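Amino acid chain
________________
===
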Amino acid sequence: MILRTLRLRAAVLAAALALPIALASCNRSSTGPSARDLDELFRAKTAWSAQALPSYTLMVRPACFCGSQTIRATVVDGIVTSRVFVETGEPVPDALFRSVESVDAMLATLERALREDVPEFRATYDARGVPLTAYIDWYANAIDDEFGWGMVEITPTP
């Protein structure tokens, strides 16, 4: 029964991450991180760094079993200055969703997952190095530890 529940939850999370966006890179492994995952993350970090985009607004939908909403985060000169839930306009509580508040935070989360050799890892990136989607199962035998996101949009700001 537990295995069936885990599979159902994984299917729900996978469906939540299926956004209609063009993906420049894809890794559909159903196992832990691979050398390809490390290579793709390195290329994404390199591409993002080359963008030299210090100010932008992003909208991202975290995917977890905590009923998350779309978040709009504003980054000015590399510093997150605002985080609000799009649907309500309410500020995102300080302790929540720090791992998706900026592209740098997302890349750091993915790097941490690879460093910790998580049981399941998937990530996709666009040509700029922006992590478009992610799915991380942090612990093999735990329930509700999975986390991921789907990028809705990212807009440079002056």
